[in-house]
Amino acid sequence: MKALLSIPVFRRFTGAWTIDNLADSALFLTLSIWVKDISGSSGAAGMVFLVLGLPIVLSPLTGALADRHPRRRLLILANTAAAGCALLLLLVTEPGDLWLIYAVAFCYGLLGILNGAAQSGILRDMLTDEHLDSANGLLSTIDQGLRIFTPLLGAALYTLWGGGALAVGVAAALLLTAALLLTVSAQESAPEPASERGGVLQENSAGFRHLGTIPLLWRMVVVTAIALGVIGLFNSALFELIEKGLGRDRDSLGS
């Protein structure tokens, strides 16, 4: 790990990744609290998590996009666009604006998937094979570690100063991420020639075809999908548990 962090370009990338994940974690849970606050509906609040995760079905397309274009540029553009999406939350003032929160959540989820695809590609260009495992482990640790306390930060911003403060804070963090990525200089590999990629359908279905050739891997994917689906039910149930089961108001989710 020490050798990995001695690489200047990776240190700068890690700093950008940390700030980006700080913004992500602060936003995710707080959007659902915001919806619950406006609508009073736990189902509507739970829909935020569905909308955030829905773009995962487009991951083959975002992966193909990351394969065809410079990854650092994609990361910068994705974070800048996500900052713009976050600022749209300033327009949310009444229950009729819930659609805007859902739209922002969907765009944010989609841009996050694009970020993940581009990040995986740029790491391979930035580091040697011997450092890839450690690098991915470190970035995953940062991602999961921030999820412990940053939702509390997002909820605190919302509770103390409202959704506008959350929108501005997240947007500022994302723009800072984009600025730091401008300092990351990596020699990126050239995109695979179109003649070697095959057609769009063939390329985007390659992962599913690969799963079909390994029954054990396919069963693991199906079981994991079912498990995550069941766990997702708790996202909506949590609001009812806090508010009715424990007799606390919805702001207690962030405290």
Automatic annotation (TrEMBL):
It holds the Pfam family MFS_1. Gene3D superfamilies: MFS general substrate transporter like domains. It is found in: Cell membrane. Residues 1-190 form the Major facilitator superfamily (MFS) profile domain. Keywords: Cell membrane, Membrane, Transmembrane, Transmembrane helix. It comes from the Bacteria. It comes from Paeniglutamicibacter gangotriensis Lz1y. The keyword Oxidoreductase does not apply. GO terms for molecular function: transmembrane transporter activity. This is Major facilitator superfamily macrolide:cation symporter (Or antiporter or uniporter). It is a multi-pass membrane protein. GO terms for cellular component: plasma membrane. The chain crosses the membrane at residues 42-62, 74-93, 99-118, 155-182, 216-242. SUPFAM superfamilies: MFS general substrate transporter.
